[in-house]
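S.,

Sequence below, as promised.
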Amino acid sequence: MAKLIVFAILAVVILASAVFCVSTKRIMRAATALLFVLFGVAGLYFLLDYTFLGAAQISIYAGGITVMYVFAIQLVSKRTLQGLSERWLGKRTLLAGLISLVGVGTVLGVFLKNKIFSELVSTNAPSSEVSMEVIGKNLMSADKYGYVLPFEFISIFLLACIIGGLVILNKQKKEEVEE
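The prediction came back faster than expected:
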């Protein structure tokens, strides 16, 4: 029963922080909310007794958030950080809300079709657990179901995003100097 209460608290923190993260326009508040989401997910890992994944979640992702703070301060103009250039875009917000509702409906439909909710409510534990050795081999293998190649693609994608951000920043600074 205690695990269920802790799970409910973590779920509320994660959901509230995630909604706040995507709804605010201030980058520092969004990054802070994302930090709470990542700590909540780490709490879920610890709740499931996956201490390695919880520690990795905190060290890798929470550390990444601090790096994001540094990039946010360096790449974003001072007016945007102070919230002076914000404006309300009603039509885009409505469209984003409708798209989000369609996404939530799709996920719930898949859950109901696959009877996931009934499996979550049942108290029967899974018959077999996946060992850390199997998880480690799958994460580090380049076989058919290995994850090394997707991790490499993600790292290249993130590097391209950082370079693109620096190029955009350079163009904006040149435009500000010319004005």
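The CA atoms of residues 101 and 115 lie 21 Å apart.

Coffee later?
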